[in-house]
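hiii so my PI (J.) wants the whole complex modelled not just the main chain, which honestly fair. so below is everything: two entries, each one labled with what it is. i double checked the lines twice but i was tired so who knows lol
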Amino acid sequence: MPAAYTSLTISDSVTTCNLVDGTNYQLVDGGWAPQLPARRISTLGGFRYDEVTEEITINVLGSTGAVALANLQTLIQLLDQAADWWSGGPGNQVELACIPQGSNLTLLVSPILGPLGAPLVLPPTFNDLLMLFEISNVTIRFRRLGMWLTGEGGTASAAAANPSILTATFPAAFKTPSPVTLWLSGLPVPTSITALETGYLLVAREAAQLKIINTSSMVPATDYSSVAGADQPLGAAVLRFIPTVTTARISGTVTLGDWDTGLIGIVAAVRNHSTDRTFDVVARVRGYGVTAETSPYFVDVTTTNPQIVCLGVIAGETYRWQTIELQVTVSALGGGGTNQLDIDYLALVALDDPCSRIISHGPVDLDATLPAASTHSLFVQSRLTASASDTGAPQPTPTMTFRTSGVGLEEARPAWHRGDIRLLQAGISISVIYCGRNSPYWRVYDPVAAAAVSLTLNATRYPAYLVPQ
Amino acid sequence: MSRLQLAIYDLVSGVMLADWSHATDTAFTTNEHGYGTLTAFVRMSPAEAFRWYDRPGLPWVEVCGNGVQAWRGRLEDVRLVTGGIQISGLGAWSVFGDVPYTALWSDATLSHWRTLTGADSLAVPDRFVFDKQDRLYIAPRKGELHDPANDGSVGYEPPVGNARQLVAWDFDYELVASADWSVYADRHDDTWANLSTEWSLAGNGGTQTGSQTLTFTGCDRLVFTMHYTPGTANYTGETGAVYVAFTNIRVRTITTAVTGNEIVAGILAAARVDNPTQLHASTGLLQSPGIDLFTERYVDVDMRSLLTRLAGLQVWEVGVWEGGRVHFRPATGRSWYIDASDLDVERSLSQVWNSAYVRYGTTMTATATDTRSGNRYGVTRRRALTSGTTDSTEAVAERDAFLTDQSDPVPRASVPVTAVYTATGGRVPLSAVRSGDTLTLRSLPPEAGTNIDRIRSFRIRETHYACDTDTLEIVPEQPLPTLDVLLSQRAIGG
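here's the output for the full assembly
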């Protein structure tokens, strides 16, 4: 006789159907083996792996016929509730949990997304054995996420002034890209910074996949100079472009070193001082005879404050990039001191890795929306299971929010994100660069403390498996 | 590489209303005017579905990944279906279809000049002879009583609903009259009340000719007047012995040259009057083609048709891409490379035109011939074009643009696209390819030319990208009428 699973349950954390307890449910011999997911082809959001369809054949038992029927109804209710949760409706999340025999892991869970058609297929003998308190060979059919998730593990980086590369290292490496929730803590109280402008979060597997380049060193080059920058740039100076022609000018270069990546995403801190001149900015990366560049980014005259912009993504066959430079074109020439563009820094991320991302948040008014007696965090939550460190319920879609710390994690407001925030972690670490700013500064700067704000990267991962372990 | 995000935004506040990255059956297109259509199914509870169905306002849909926008447009249609909603979006170009456009920019025709009557002003048309045959002609009629209070006047009327005032006036004149007669070029308001005289000339008994370019404070009407100064008297001369004739008349609502970018900027401003948040106000991406357009008078025209026509005058592109910014510029675009593993190409001479002339007004341009094309294909194929312009420069520009575009055949082709690469060999997502980009087949035989008959390299007119299957369908520029789809291939990207 085949050995039973150590544990196999369907539960919403309030109501649990133990499919192998032998009292209310009993897995029939050969009644179930977990389905493996395929890699997901769709390029839109979502998970790395497809959903899977499970069919589990059980006997539904009870101490009486009525109890057996009630147990049957409980299963149906849970699967129905799962569909509600997945479509954003009311009700707790429902999970399939499993421990195969011989496992040395704690329970692995996979969120159920709802029944596949009718939740149960009842046998023709449905009524025959009820007087023996059993409904035999009932088949449960439902969809679940392709991943099995286990307990969380948290870590945090050292604090560092923004923008900088923050790396949080886990106690052990984990190979399969797994959901991760991360948050940047340390944003100051609203009395010193009342609002944040649009910012970017560059996420990577490790620090080596991120770079910050102070562009003031991209000299000498015609029409470019390094000048002391106002409003707290990353370095003491910024790269200033004062055009003498309307054709493109190429800056000096900065050495990247041998950087192993095929795709590079580039975010820049730029400032158009002009109210009537526009600029096209192109980032060019060179390596071993190959030059690749972004599409021109159009810097308009919407503001004369600094702004954080995404210049785009560079793709190249070489996996050994060596230098980076900028190419800027101005729309028209004009006199006076405002015919100029400043660039403070570039932030780069190697995007080949499935864990890499560029995501952004919109402007947020901290003063009006969050309590003052706390610090704030920028939270990217893609948690699908219950968490001891986050009291919010698991959500079918990820969220990016600004949250208060010390008041309650539910004190949050949306960050109006752009980009795929279903974050993944693989390996032993996760690294980010936060490119944000509060007006009129180049970065997140606390005028009361007279210092760039120090941020800490916190991360909680939910190791993912494709089969129960 | 991370995936794309599909999200809904309130355009006014910038607030993200929902992240619908879990949508399925998602597909979007791009075309020569920017982002085209988007369709998707979004699963949601019935309560939420009804909330979206009944939501006031006009949300916007955006698809982006790694800080790069892949599609953006209006959420135009919401359909309740089982398990959620089916949505359709249209790119920001559709904003130009919301309101009609009425405006006068420049008019070098005589169609909208008319003889004024006593109901309009002091004019008494019966006492003068007028004609509009290639000129504006005013002559006192023999035997009629003339006096200073009864003029012969012709006036220009902009279209009703036009909000642009007249500020410039060009004309040539020929005045044959004694000192008793004077001619005037006057500004008038929209009730034909005289505002000021911008130019006048008294007769001297001989023939006086000249040209005038007048600029002035904006007004709603312009009037040429022939005026008898001494007092009441019968004109005893022959009809036609005294006259004034105006030719090469042009009225403008802009003091500088009327170039395409100025008109596009005007259309953009007009579109933003009723829908101020849907298009960016920036004119930084509007380039000047340098061609002065002589007759641009529009009454209730579709802005999209007008913009397309303006771009077509010099084979430029007009549309809306990132940030709702309108562009008007020479055809640009990125270059991508694909490997053609299953190439099926056919060349047809039916679309080759390597010689052309343009008829405009009562004349025509010289015939221009592309010698290279003629030598290559061994035949001269000439096309006669017609243009509504009255300006030779504009007509020549249209002719040359036609030759540039038609002197090589557009191929009938079918090319499987399995992946797209940059010039340096880097692989890029299929979703990054869009209209206006150039595709180059890099696996053709090395002895083939670098640009053989637009086969090795061609511009993309439309893209159709399906997120669920990561497939891209491509339609090249100017598909031939005999083919349903010129260049299309479903391919699974990596």
